[in-house]
Structures are given as C-alpha cells and as structure tokens.
C-alpha cells in the first residue's frame, strides 16, 4: 500500500490474527513525528540501517536486529539516521493500526487534501500528534 511517497506491506492484520496483532513493514519509509496512540502498543524491530526511536523520555539508537517497545499512551517517534534509508517491522497489539494506513491511502486516491485526511483519520484511530 502506498501514500505520501511511502510504501507499507501489511504482513499480518486483524482478519488473520483474530484481532490480536498486526505487523507492518515499511518498504519506502517516512519518519514518524512524536505522537501518542491510545489503543495500540507498538514494537519496532529494525531490519536495515540505523534508526533513532524515542519513547517517553528515552532515546534509543538502534540497528538491525534491535527491538524497542512503545506502550500505548506514551509519546514516541522514530526516524532514520540517514533520511529515507532503512527498513523496520512495526508490530501493533491489538491489531487495527493497519486501518489507519488503508484510510490514508484511500483518502489520497480520492484526492482529499493531506492535512485534512491526517486530521480525520488520526481522530478515528485515537492518535494524537504532538508538537516539540
């Protein structure tokens, strides 16, 4: 699935895990600004290159094979050390975050302005984007 110059591969979703979890691979990645999820815990598993992941007041510099846990309700962000270089798997529990990506891709195909789509879809999935 693609949107906003990013590409994601949904490896597991609610319909294949009984709602327990979802796994998403970032193929053509974008960095994710600081945000809070109300419904899902997130686990980052690094596949390629170096990444910086913030969870709460901690910053993790991680590389291939490393794993970082981002619990729901705790602000977190992730970025690549080299912009747009590196892949990761993100595991969400319970499942459902894949709907956020699908809704954004659908909004982009329908021509909805990006800012409006992000605001609407973020509200639907209880994601709050934070200013630094």
Can you offer a commentary on this structure?
A hairpin with a 2-residue loop joins strand 1 (2-3) and strand 2 (6-12). The chain has 132 residues and is of the alpha+beta class. It has a 6-stranded antiparallel β-sheet. Strands 7-6-9-4-11 form a 5-stranded antiparallel β-sheet. It has helices spanning 14-17, 97-109, 114-124; strands at residues 2-3, 6-12, 22-28, 32-37, 41-46, 51-55, 58-62, 67-70, 76-80, 88-93, 127-129. 21% of the residues lie in helices and 42% in strands. It is globular. The chain has one domain (2-129): Jelly Rolls. Helix 2 (97-109) packs antiparallel against helix 3 (114-124).
Provide tags for this entry.
3 helices; 21% helix; 5-stranded antiparallel sheet; 6-stranded antiparallel sheet; 132 residues; alpha+beta; Jelly Rolls
Describe the structure in brief:
With about 130 residues, this protein is α+β, with helices and mostly antiparallel strands.
Count up the helices. 3
CATH homologous group name? Jelly Rolls
Low-confidence stretches: none
CA(first)-CA(last) distance: 29 Å
Number of domains: 1
- How much of the polypeptide forms β-strand, as a percent range? 35-45%
Secondary-structure map:
Layout: E1 2-3, E2 6-12, H1 14-17, E3 22-28, E4 32-37, E5 41-46, E6 51-55, E7 58-62, E8 67-70, E9 76-80, E10 88-93, H2 97-109, H3 114-124, E11 127-129
Antiparallel strand pairs: 1-2, 2-3, 3-10, 4-9, 4-11, 5-8, 5-10, 6-7, 6-9
Helix pairs in contact: 2-3
């Amino acid at each position: 699935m693609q949107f906003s110059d990013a590409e994601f591969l949904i490896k597991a979703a609610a319909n294949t895990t009984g709602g327990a979890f979802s796994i998403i691979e970032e193929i053509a990645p974008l960095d994710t600004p600081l945000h809070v999820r109300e419904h899902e815990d997130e686990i980052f598993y690094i596949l390629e290159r170096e990444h910086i992941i913030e969870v709460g007041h901690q910053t993790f510099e991680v590389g291939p094979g490393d794993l970082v846990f981002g619990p729901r309700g705790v602000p977190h962000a992730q970025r690549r050390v080299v912009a747009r270089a590196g892949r990761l798997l993100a595991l969400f529990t319970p499942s459902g975050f894949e709907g956020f990506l699908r809704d954004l891709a659908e909004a982009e195909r329908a021509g909805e302005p990006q800012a409006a789509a992000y605001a609407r879809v973020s509200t639907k999935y209880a994601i709050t984007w934070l200013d630094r």
